[in-house]
């Protein structure tokens, strides 16, 4: 029996890249899939219904079951429409994969309010919107799966992505609290940080030889590598896995640490600028270096 037989899944941003591969694999594992994608560009602009329709057709041609939805997750009322599509077409909902995303990269001292708001709206608010609408259904049926997408841009850091990093680290927090709030109802929530070539990563500048070499390495990491972990987290096999942050880098799967105290100091008389300055060195040994993702993952991906 297929691992997701009789399950119904929503995959947002499922028209291309990682979302498409997830939708295809969930369908192959027996899930009925709502393919959500408004068909916009990497910056979120534009609308092309064919993007979702083509994935639906591909699923159907291989014997699967799917329906398209073209709403943007950035608006709360649209989340209701997306969930209602699943209920209208397939009668239930078991899995929500919050994958939709856009990029508006800019150095923080140049970033506009619109560039900030649009990225936060799609990634962070969009993930909340879908979670908020689906959670009562999962609560009532005492079961469900949320798989959210975070990024090393937020978990570690990347230059010029204040909006994206803030959204993605916010999604890590949303995932944790969703896992806590929904645990008593047999609902899990986990986050995945993907390393894979996609149209979003395709916006990386390639002006120098170093940049070109980096992009060529990224192109080796297929979006298809991400889908099996998402399928596992969607299945009954993962009932005891919740509140975790995973990474997929080629054929490597990792679990990320989450913030915990690593060093502390105590002063019975309280603290002043001078007394903190005096013990600064004992804390500095535990400071996290100011790094970007490629500093933490300098080795070649296992593809």
UniProtKB/TrEMBL annotation:
<dbReference type="Pfam" id="PF00106">
    <property type="entry name" value="adh_short"/>
</dbReference>
<dbReference type="InterPro" id="IPR051687">
    <property type="entry name" value="Peroxisomal_Beta-Oxidation"/>
</dbReference>
<dbReference type="InterPro" id="IPR057326">
    <property type="entry name" value="KR_dom"/>
</dbReference>
<dbReference type="InterPro" id="IPR036291">
    <property type="entry name" value="NAD(P)-bd_dom_sf"/>
</dbReference>
<keyword id="KW-0560">Oxidoreductase</keyword>
<dbReference type="InterPro" id="IPR002347">
    <property type="entry name" value="SDR_fam"/>
</dbReference>
<dbReference type="GO" id="GO:0008206">
    <property type="term" value="P:bile acid metabolic process"/>
</dbReference>
<dbReference type="InterPro" id="IPR020904">
    <property type="entry name" value="Sc_DH/Rdtase_CS"/>
</dbReference>
<feature type="domain" description="Ketoreductase">
    <location>
        <begin position="7"/>
        <end position="203"/>
    </location>
</feature>
<protein>
    <submittedName>
        <fullName>SDR family NAD(P)-dependent oxidoreductase</fullName>
    </submittedName>
</protein>
<comment type="similarity">
    <text>Belongs to the short-chain dehydrogenases/reductases (SDR) family.</text>
</comment>
<dbReference type="GO" id="GO:0016491">
    <property type="term" value="F:oxidoreductase activity"/>
</dbReference>
